[in-house]
Amino acid sequence: MAQATQISHILEQGTPTQTYFAHLDPGKTGIGPMSRSDCHPSEKRAHPRPTIATLAVTLRDDSVLLVRRNNASEAARWGLPGGEVNWGETILDAAQREMSEESGLTTRPRHAFSAHEIIETDDAGNPSRHIIFIAVLCAWIDGQPGGGDDAHEARWFRLEDLANPGLNLNANVVEIVRQAAAFHHDHAFGSSMTVGA
User: Fold this and answer.
1) Per its UniProt record, what Pfam families does this chain match (predicted)?
2) Cα separation of 101 and 176, whole Å?
3) Percent of the chain having pLDDT more than 90?
């Protein structure tokens, strides 16, 4: 059994970063399997801490970069590049690394703009998996998309095409990309972008 829980809203006035939130459907995040449960590789805890992961959202000329992964459960769906944050790695650096590994693009991470979490429970109702996702807006610098690491395909999608019902997307991709486009516009990174219909 699984449930998705929205993280409390965090917004510090006067900072350049606003935080947006959306629910994610467990098992359809496009991240792939993550097995690490401890915060520090040398620590052993009676109750493991949540895993921290990133979702990298790269916008370019009214398009967004999406990937399809190699694992069977994700192979047919398009999702955002991302993965687990390594020990000692910043969230922004993790987003940049994951984007490079999964798409081959060179990007510059700008801001973390939203946070999401999933909590999966076993049949007895005990937490069996807990992941916190931090979505990061990235700027394209160089490169053409191509599959890499655990992603076998990467390509640009026009934002207006994300509303196409025939496009097989991971859950909440449209909502997260819409949030990224709004953040991009609100903070004067570029012109206004419209995502889907």
Assistant:
1) NUDIX
2) 21
3) 46
Number of domains, the chain: 1
What does the pLDDT read at residue 106?
Answer: 94
Q: Which two tokens stand for residue 189?
A: 């990174």
Task: Indicate the residue type of 93.
Answer: D
Q: Output the pLDDT for position 33.
A: 36
Q: How far apart are CA 96 and CA 142, in angstroms?
A: 13
Is residue 111 one of the residues assigned to a domain? yes
Read off the pTM.
0.71
pLDDT tens digits for 88-133? 999 999 999 999 998 999 999 999 999 988 899 999 999 998 999 9
Token pair of 78 as six digits: 């398009």
CA dist., res. 99 & res. 109, Å (int): 10
In which domain, by residue range, is 163 found?
2-7+17-39+46-186
113: phi then psi, degrees, rounded to nearest 5? -120, -10
CA dist., res. 78 & res. 99, Å (int): 14
- Tell me the torsion sign for CA atoms 164, 167, 171, 173: negative
Asked if residue 172 belongs to a domain, the reply is: yes
